[in-house]
Amino acid sequence: MSDVLDLPIPFAALRVGASRTMRFEGKDYGSGISFFFVDNDPGMGPGLHRHPYTETWTVIEGEATITIDGRAIVARAGDTAVVAVNTWHGFTNTGDGALRILCIHDSPEIIQEFLYEE
Q: What does the alpha-carbon distance between residue 52 and residue 25 come to, in Å, rounded to a whole number?
């Protein structure tokens, strides 16, 4: 990695497959954090998983039902939630429209263990 990055980082460089979601791993860009910017349709979301670090979500648009250690909470645009280290969690778009949520990982790389195979 060079000392000078080409900025801004284009969406195409972070896009996950053909989805509208971006995956940013800080280690690739000299950052100490990583994130997913998720743009999901109703009913979509990751299954239960955990990380060896905290994760913080901010809902930008829509509604998410977030499950943290078996407890479901509803988060809407403007809400923020935090999950502790090694805690099983996931979320689903339970709104009527798109869910746009920023999922910040307190790690320069994303490390995930899913409860069930994805």
A: 15
Place of tokens 């497959």: 17
For the chain, the straight-line distance linking the first and the last C-alpha, in angstroms and rounded, comes to 32
Name the pTM for this structure.
0.91
**Sheet containing 89-93: order of strands:** 71-76, 63-68, 89-93, 49-50, 113-114
Q: Is 78 left (phi over 0), alpha (psi -120 to 50) or beta?
A: left
Listed in order, strand segments (DSSP E) in 62-98 are 63-68, 71-76, 80-83, 89-93
Question: Token digits for 66?
Answer: 């977030």
Instruction: For 18-49, write each residue's pLDDT tens digit.
Output: 999 999 999 999 999 999 999 999 999 999 99
Classified as helix, coil or strand, 32 is: coil
